[in-house]
Amino acid sequence: MKKGAILPLFYLPPIEFFDKIIKHSEHIIIENAEHFPKQTYRSRASIHSPNGKLDLIVPVIKGKNVHTPIKDVKISYDFDWQRLHWLSLQTSYRSSAFFEFYEDDFAPFYEKKHEYLFDYNEELLTLLLKLLKLDVQYSYTKDYEKEYPDFEDYRNTILPKIESDYQTKPYFQVFEDRNGFMPNLSIVDLLFNQGPRSVQHLQTSA
């Protein structure tokens, strides 16, 4: 297995993202020179709601052309998506064991308005690594490269519309009795249900 990995920045990334970070923790590169691809986890996250899987989508301002550099993608506030996302997280996880434990950490991300999606995701990643107690250093790409021969390339493999080969180690989910266990949801699903045990869960799965 290649030691290094190149990953994009996601909004509340799926569990698989952190599995890759742990496996390749010696050398992580974050892609920041790509063009923004639509319908990916860069602007969406999947959570376990009372009615099943729910996708939370961060709306972005449409540019004049599709080839917008990821660093230049601006978040749209034409409607109050922050309130919608926060209400959805509360509805889905208020009764979980650790939602109140982390609530104050996440609330500011649904109050403050960030201009750029990349910066928003970057700040969320910093918080998530801190809450998971993962001491991971990473660098950024300087230019876009189609291939990285010495790295595992996950830029186009962790996708909402394609079923992943990643096997999520089961854990308790609030609405599991109603909807069954849902694998590879946003990392917040693991955090709110498992709390400080989340990192051990990830490490034993990796």
What does this entry look like structurally?
With 206 residues, this protein is of the alpha/beta class. Helix content is 32%, strand content 13%. It has helices at residues 15-23, 81-93, 99-106, 117-131, 176-179, 187-194, 198-205; strands at residues 4-7, 27-30, 44-49, 52-57, 138-140, 151-153. Strands 5-2-1-6 form a 4-stranded parallel sheet, covered by helices on one side.
Sheet-strand content, in percent, reads: 5-15%
Strand order of the largest sheet: 5-2-1-6
Distance between the ends: 13 Å
Overall geometry: globular
Instruction: Give the number of helices.
Output: 7
Number of domains: 1
Q: Roughly what is the average pLDDT, rounded to an integer?
A: 93
Contiguous runs where pLDDT drops below 50 for at least 5 residues = none
Descriptive labels:
globular, single chain
How would you sum up this structure in a few lines?
Helix content is 32%, strand content 13%.
Write the layout of secondary structure elements.
Elements: E1 4-7, H1 15-23, E2 27-30, E3 44-49, E4 52-57, H2 81-93, H3 99-106, H4 117-131, E5 138-140, E6 151-153, H5 176-179, H6 187-194, H7 198-205
Parallel strand pairs: 1-2, 1-6, 2-5
Antiparallel strand pairs: 3-4
